Amino acid sequence: MTKRNTDKSTSTNSVVDVAEMTPASALALPYVTRFSEDDLYFFNEGNHYRLYEHMGSHPMTVDGIKGVYFAVWAPNAAYVAVIGDFNGWNRGSHPLKAKGASGIWEIFIPDLQVGALYKYFVASRYNGYESERADPYGFHHETPPRTASVVWDMNYTWGDQDWMAHRAARNNLSAPISVYEVHIGSWMRLPEEGNRALTYREMAPRLASYVNQMGFTHVEFLPIMEHPFYGSWGYQTSGYFAPTSRFGTPQDFMYLVDYLHQHGIGVILDWVPSHFPSDGHSLGYFDGTHLYEHAYREKGWHPDWNSYIFNYGRHEIRAFLLSSAIFWLDKYHIDGLRVDAVASMLYLDYSRKAGEWMPNQYGSNENLEAIYFLRRMNEVIYERFPDVQTIAEESTSWSMVSRPTYVGGLGFGMKWDMGWMHDTLNYMSHDPVFRRYHQNDLTFRMLYAYHENFMLPLSHDEVVHGKGALLNKMPGDIWQKFANLRVLFGYMFAQSGKKLLFMGGEIGQWDEWSHEQGVQWFLLDYPFHQGMQRWVSDLNRFYRTEPAMHELDTDPRGFEWIDVNDWEGSTITLLRRGKSTATVVVGAFNFTPVPREDYWIGVPCGGYWREVLNSDAREYEGSGFGNAGGVMASEMATHGRPFTIRIKLPPLGGVFFINNCPAQPRDM
């Protein structure tokens, strides 16, 4: 039995004398390359977007001989070898050959099989530095805490042709996009099997069935890229071209995506180009130099996450990250990338004190190289995959994040509205007695709501680290907590913008999220939680089927305030329109536990206004205070509109009414 080398970032007693290593000491292997001169040129220029077809390990047949081709970038190495279970982890048996001055090293090894474990032994030309590294372009890796890469074949027969042919209509800004955010390792656990997580294949039918039951349009997975520390939730990525092997093989993850697509569900991935971990087998100090990370600590080390920051000014690093982004869209049919921590990339002084950061060449705090990378990334993605979305998690007021690069924007398709999330949760945390003093928290977003293409997130970040579950953020007794959460969700769906909700919120989970525990599905044995789940499902159904609720999500023509001035009563009324129908939706929200028996709302047309949703209905475990199906409008002006409906507005409740109204002069 061959004993493996243990992980070490450096070794003082190398088994290879690099100075004496010559090609004659290597095996007589055929020379094979997957790089043309154009490939090398575009790589070193930073404009190669499909490096995964060249770098890494690739099973192939050369002159009738089956084997595996390896290529790795280590421009400051004096010697590179492939070590693995096939050669006893011998650093001297399979040295790679440098490909000119490109910094790329390559080798073809005959008779090597898929499934072989391997690493690169890298001996630097500086300071005698040596290390054993996982493949930066590896398609598959050992399950952590083991750290070797695995030779893998990426073949898979897809069955989602119909989805791929028509997904542009599902992903565009006029489509309903309601995202269910999921952490694969903790969505559903199996207590009867030691509390283990589901595999990719086990998850596929369960998740697809549940998402369709709930009416969500897309699933967004927290980063599934390989990561050494499970507790990082994937945000400390080490394998930028590999789904984590904790839940299965690459083909197993393809199956999950394929299955979701075949059941009409889009798939978005969190992707982290902002930083990477310092684990010894990963990218940091890869060839004895600061290769992937910036050499200056002020620009190359993230103080919040104790991780390295990519050197966006280096051409080959841009090509690496661009290729990673394209890889998931290409090989895994992903429908969108949510780019994590964009703000940390844009600002050189992000989370740094005075004296801890380096200004750019103009003396300011913008990270010009990162800005260029983000713009180029979006240009490349939308040029090659115009039917997907890129979504920025950007928490500052940086302008034009979701505007095209040709007008000076960053080029993202959408941006998370972090301001809406913080303001709204702050408002909802107040006792209703005091909400009258915070009405501005609910209304402020409309001053900027159309500066970007926004998605409204109630994400994982709001239910961890002592922040408590959404339900526990709500004030009052049990009935009031559930009523508050229902009206929060109703108000969220009434606002313009796409929607995102983290798993567990839709059932009113009591405990904040733990990556070691599954969603508390047992709560669905209780009526309050059943009612919450039905409410979210019905909101999704209404949002998806009623064009007025989604078609103009990013267009100011789709939204109007009716009355935001009743701050003393803590009520708000608003109106939504679409572009393809005459339907008008009116939403009314009461953020106090006081029922309003005769509440007047100005509306644009007469006739019968049908009540389509009421968060206080008994099927949601409310009090049943409602409007018996709808109300007739009277020809009397209110709120500057020609007609009035007089409704019963429930306590801590939200109601929606619809009617077909003729086009108004302002719409012509």
Give a structural overview.
By secondary structure, the protein is α/β, with parallel strands linked by helices. It folds into 3 domains: 18-150, Immunoglobulins (Immunoglobulin-like), CATH 2.60.40; 172-276 and 336-350 and 389-546, Glycosidases (TIM Barrel), CATH 3.20.20; 556-667, Immunoglobulin-like, CATH 2.60.40. It is built from 13 helices and 30 strands. The chain has an 8-stranded parallel β-barrel, surrounded by 5 helices. A 6-stranded antiparallel β-sheet has the order 23-24-25-30-27-28. The longest helix is centred in the last third of the chain and has 19 residues, at 527-545. The chain starts with 36 loop residues before the first helix and ends in an 8-residue tail after the last strand.
Low-confidence stretches: 1-16, 18-27
Q: Which architecture of the largest domain does the CATH hierarchy give at level 2?
A: Alpha-Beta Barrel
The CATH class label of the largest domain is: Alpha Beta
Counting structural domains, the number is 3
Structural class: alpha/beta
Q: Which percent range fits the helix content?
A: 10-25%
Number of strands: 30
CATH homologous superfamily of the largest domain, by name?
A: Glycosidases
Radius of gyration: 28 Å
Number of H- or I-type helical stretches: 13
Fill in the CATH topology of the largest domain: TIM Barrel
User: What's the main sheet like?
Assistant: 8 strands, parallel, barrel
CA-based shape:
elongated
Q: How many angstroms does the end-to-end distance come to? A: 80 Å
Strand portion:
15-25%
Give the overall average pLDDT.
Answer: 94
Strand order of the largest sheet: 9-12-15-18-19-20-21-22
